[in-house]
Amino acid sequence: MEGLNDVEGTYEADMKLTPLQAVEIMEGSKTLDGTGRSKRKVVSNTIYKWPKGIVMFEFSNINELPENIKRTVLSAMEYWASVTCLQFRKRTAELEKEVGHSDYIVFSKGPGCSSQIGRVGGPQEITISEICNKKVTVAHEIGHSIGFYHEQSRPDRDYYVEIRRTNIQPGYEGDFKKYEAGIDIGLQEPYDIGSAMHYGPTWFSKDDKSYTIEPKDKGFLGVMGQREELTFMDMKTANDFYECNASCPNNLECKNGGYVGPNCVCVCPSGLTGITCDDVKRGTPVCGGILSGASGTFMTPNFPGNYPDNADCFWLVQATQASEITVTFDNFEMEEDETCYYDWLEIRRHSMLLAGPKYCGEGPSGPIVFIGQSLMFHFHTDDGYGFKGFRASYTIRPK
Ligand SMILES: [Zn+2]
């Protein structure tokens, strides 16, 4: 987990701000123009970007990272490069000429993990320590350096999470500040509680178990603070910010919220596939599919026998127009766990593009009612402890 050790001079535990950025956060992104009047400035669109999407870097010779962490750093850079148009290249004199500046990231060994936000000018450090030696945790730090703030600092965060101040370890209250509009990238996108840029529910807790950021919907307990992957919205936000599809022909229309990615093909929300994201991934074992009738049923593999290990099934309930989609579970029996860590059913009941709450044990307490055109279900099991699973029925009522 990043941020366990604070680093002197950091604003949030793993985030360092330049004096200008600190002023912007304090003043709600108002900066003074030449006349002394205050004007609003979306700095994120100007000085923070890496020109041409080229991020120059080197490894520190002074606080040298051990080889195993260097490998993690390289894999985290490869990860970002594989899902965006960003390029991470070793700093050379020729490259400085090509990009027209000499700003670069220095990866060094730190007492904790930290990064500055965006490109700040000259060398800027990303520190990594053994406790954050994990690909997506390092990708989180790199995320800061390409322009991301923490997701839970967004001005709209109080609709989704509650900050429990009395549970925060003394001295870390600053990690839970909320920023005003205008300084973050991706604010035009919906709040992504599952983002790799979001903290987990007990981070910086005084006793390591009381909630510091409590999700309003408990189904998100196992989603918040995940460092397994960059989410669809993490990737989309970076792609938008660096205009990764700017030179693609604009004749490809991605469906279901997909976007045109850096290779000029549609990048689909999780569980969807096809050239235009209009199909559902066939699961393991073969399961799932598109449900477009006015009503119907779907169930876990082998139901009412026990579901298999290592299963992944996606069901997309799809209406032809905005509708009220009601889903009722006639039976629900899955491995119980507070955060639904092992076997779960994810219902993307807010948006198809975002992680949804996870259900396990006895499942949702009543019918799920969704207003919209399409509702996605993702059933997942790990190895061991199979249960009966569920059978669900749905109805679509056009609005
Ligand atoms: Zn961070």
TrEMBL record:
Gene Ontology molecular function: metalloendopeptidase activity; zinc ion binding
Pfam families in the record: Astacin, CUB
Record EC number: 3.4.24.-
Keywords assigned by UniProt, alphabetized: Disulfide bond, EGF-like domain, Glycoprotein, Hydrolase, Metal-binding, Metalloprotease, Protease, Secreted, Signal, Zinc
GO biological process, one term: molting cycle, collagen and cuticulin-based cuticle
Domain CUB: 287-397
GO cellular component: extracellular region
SMART domains (UniProt xref): CUB (SM00042), ZnMc (SM00235)
Name of the protein in its database record: Metalloendopeptidase
Natural source organism: Potamilus streckersoni
Taxon lineage: Eukaryota, Metazoa, Spiralia, Lophotrochozoa, Mollusca
